Amino acid sequence: MTTAAAYSVSAPDGRFTKTTIERRELGPHDVLIDIKYAGICHSDIHTARNEWRGTKYPCVPGHEIAGLVAAVGSQVTKYQVGDRVGVGCMVDSCGECEPCVFGDQQYCERGATMTYNTTVAEELQPGGHTLGGYSTRIVVTEGFVVGIPEGIGLDEAAPLLCAGVTLFSPLRHWNAGPGKRVAIIGMGGLGHVGVKIAAAMGAEVTVLSHSLSKQDDGKRFGAHHYYATDDRQIFRDLRGRFDLIINTVSADLPIDTYLRLLKLDGTLVMLGLPENPLVVRPFSLTAARRSVAGSNIGGIPQTQEMLDFCAEHGIGAEIEVISADRIDDAYERVIASDVRYRFVIDAATM
Ligand code: NAP
Ligand code: ZN
């Protein structure tokens, strides 16, 4: 058993406190990672505060992990001590169902083991549920570890492990590229990486933000157009314009209004996960054979493909590095949309 420092929360309205956790003994296929940085995703907040129900306490969130390999099991072939590596939202899956065989482990028919808050056997994680990256060390089976290319700093790479692949996957699936008009709703942690990736793929990128306060940044990230959604006129001006709209907003939005911005055969993809159901008028769909879809993170091969793509195009997340004792404050600022554009915890401060 290895011990690690961690920050955990014990109740939905609790504050983060420093604690010591145990990680399992290194198995033959396991990699022990010294965590250097962990991003703060809005999903961490939804979970820590039990907004999706079913949070297991004590909860150690964190699924945007970047670090260095500290030890490898006897049969590990992909990694060596010292390698720059990342871990995203999943740490295991059945490996046998069709999605797993295809490399889409996030759609595992038996349910993937998420990096935190999934019930597992005691021998896999003492305590009986997975504990994430707000920690100094983690043990992960090598098939769920990805390599971070030299061209990206570990700090700016960490958010790519969730935010990066969550945008890369639908952009690829719905063929974002030259000649395609892509709109991204919400320019937060997910959205800002999406702007960079979609622009690098060659699409014409529009940001739909609730104000113009981040417009200059959006243009710097590669957006061609930037609109404030509090100006209702844009919903008339942009009607029928987009091939693909990706909604990254963590709060309820009038989705039906946005649907009308899609052209014939366009798709609106839900990434943001607010608690309430969507209201969609069937007429908004039938009028132009439009679709509403959803997408969940990305598989392990695609996570590696995304990291290689980002290194090739000089893409990293825009980050604010914080010490671990500032997690509670960072959560408040994420909720207030006061983050430029991802908080990353420096594990050295644990
Ligand atoms: P974030 O950094 O908080 O960004 C969300 C953005 O949404 C904000 O920056 C803001 O953008 C906009 N927004 C927030 N509150 C709003 C409101 N009341 N009205 C209108 N716009 C608002 O969060 P994130 O980490 O990017 O995550 C976003 C959502 O995606 C969360 O619900 C998270 O759980 C979910 N998520 C889903 C997946 C998946 O696989 N599907 C993966 C990761 C995260 P503007 O200021 O530009 O308007
Ligand atoms: Zn996430």
UniProtKB/TrEMBL annotation:
PROSITE patterns: ADH_ZINC (PS00059). Its EC number is 1.1.1.2. SUPFAM superfamilies: GroES-like (SSF50129), NAD(P)-binding Rossmann-fold domains (SSF51735). Pfam families: ADH_N, ADH_zinc_N. Keywords: Metal-binding, Oxidoreductase, Zinc. Residues 14-345 form the Enoyl reductase (ER) domain. It catalyses: a primary alcohol + NADP(+) = an aldehyde + NADPH + H(+). One of its GO terms (molecular function) is alcohol dehydrogenase (NADP+) activity. Its cofactor is Zn(2+). Belongs to the zinc-containing alcohol dehydrogenase family. This is alcohol dehydrogenase (NADP(+)). It comes from Nocardia vermiculata.
